[in-house]
Predict the 3D structure of the following.
Amino acid sequence: MALAHLVGPVAVKKTPSGIAGFDQITEGGLPLGRPTLVCGGPGSGKTIFAVEFLVRGAELGEPGVFVSFEESAEDLASNVAALGFDLARLVEQKLLAVDYVHLDRAEIEEAGGYSLDGLFVRLEHAIDAIGAKRVAIDTLEVLFGTLKDDAVVRAETQRLFRFLKERGVTVVVTAEAGADSLTRQGLEEYVSDCVVSLSQKVLDQSATRYLRIVKYRGSNHGTNEYPFLIDCGFSVVPASSLQLDYQVSIDRVSSGIPSLDAMLSGNGFYRTSTILVSGSAGCGKSILAAHLANATCARGERCMLFAFEESPSQIVRNMRSVRLDLQSWQDKGLLQLRATRPSLYGLEMHLVSMHKAISEFKPNTVILDPISSFMSAGTPHQIKAMLVRLFDWLKTQQITGLVTCLTTPQTREETDVGISSLIDTWIEVRDLEVAGERNRALYLLKSRGMSHSNQVRELVISNAGVSLADVFTGDDGVLVGSAKSTELRRRAREEQERAADAARSERLLELKRETLESQIATLRAEYALHEEEVQRRLRGSRDIAEAARADRDSVAQLRTESGSRANSAGNLGTNHGDRGVT
Amino acid sequence: MTDDPSRAKTPRPFSRVSAPQLEDDTERWNLRLYVAGETPKCVQAFQHLKQICEEHLQGRYSIEVIDLLKNPTLAQGDQIIAIPTLVRQLPPPVKKIIGDLTNTERVVVGLNLVPIKPETRRAK
């Protein structure tokens, strides 16, 4: 059995602590069946860590023993009741045993050699009584302060850990941090498997709690200082996942504004992508954010909006002006608005509290409005570090994130450098001042993984809602707002005039044609009349000539009766033809 | 707690020492020695204690030996962590002396066995 450890690589077995975030940092939790040292200064959360370790263990069906050197069972129970831990119930269910070891230095006289068998007996009895798998000792150092024989205490401490290892229980031992060592009494010498350090730092008047894994024998672990929150127990936020290996989605989600979706190849954002809406003051960033929230809720999904400048009721009221009814989504429990002042606490605490809120609500979309207000709470580098962690985490949780950022021409670059690399889709809204008015122009700076419009659109915000309109490029550049409508009207007028012109020319032409035709008709009539007249005259003269000839003929016939018949017949034929034409 | 019947089963090296009936209860000394099995330290402590009591409290004391291996639940009541531990139940206040009681002087001082000359003891 012992050889097996030497022969093959045997990974350290771990047991989940159940403390939010901690198991991720340690890639599985605490070393199973081994002691872990949790050290930190006063008020750093050592006891709560130890209690939560047992409470979560009880939830996982692992009973635990809490050996308290500092607080009585009653005090302990009432202290952690505020965190939502009901120790009395756990004790009743035999999932927890609290042994308060009260040592009064004034009461104890030492006369000769001794061992700490009493403690061992108590511990063993408690472990056996409930079949404990976990033990927390808070804090062992009290022994060093109470008992004078340091050598005995050290030897017994060593024996205690050996004993606990033999029992195979997972142990959390707390210890006070020393001035320049991890613990005041050097307990780290005895607990060599896993050491966790808790601290609290004050930066710009806001305190943040940090947790760090100092050591974890035989295991990988995150080495950073991780901020944590004590609210309903511990919440540790992993600094950032160790790899860029989150799952991406090809699913698309609507931005809530159809014309904006159209710019994003018609389907809106990718689910789980990170969206930045940047722009100057009052250009409609929050409105865009609210539309995404509205669209999320309309799909029956959950949305969480963190506001850093407005109160929830103010947001609801303001969005009503663009026909968004956020209240109804709130009532249905699909939308949660959380407003905090950025200066309320440090960046890390913001991160931790957001982390916690998101973990509890499990939204599909998270909105931060705006992140620029954090500028007052940290340096750009710190803000970036925080956002990296937040975005990273949102991605691993398959959450679509939208953040807004207030920019001025000066800070625009900062945004650029700061978080551009984290953003999948970047929408910029800028104000355009043309012809004595201010209008909003929206365009896409980037949108990873999809074809997207390169057009500048005008963001039109009115009582009827929000829409995007095509902008006009006139002789004076981009035209928006009333300048655009003036231009539109001018163009319409021109068009009208042109149309009228054409109609008039057409009419004129028609008139001319009609005139021409009537003239032709008149001429034709005149001609016909004239022709008739001419015919008539010709006929008249021919008749006269005929008559004359007839006269002549009759005369000639009278004169020469024979020899002229043939001539007469020929003339008659000609006369017939003429009559046919007229 | 003192009426626990299981306490009667004291191991052989720790023979129970009962005090005779005394009219004045304030003079009565009730001592309790916590042990964990028959380790040399525990046996030694009992012998030392008996010796000291015979010397200073003859006829006015009782020694009750509690083996925590047999009655582990009793450790919590008197807040025992060290073995052996001697607890002075009577007269009040409760006093605790830990160790094998080889340092007789400490035991005598710790139990306040010589109340008449405390000044000289302390000066020393």
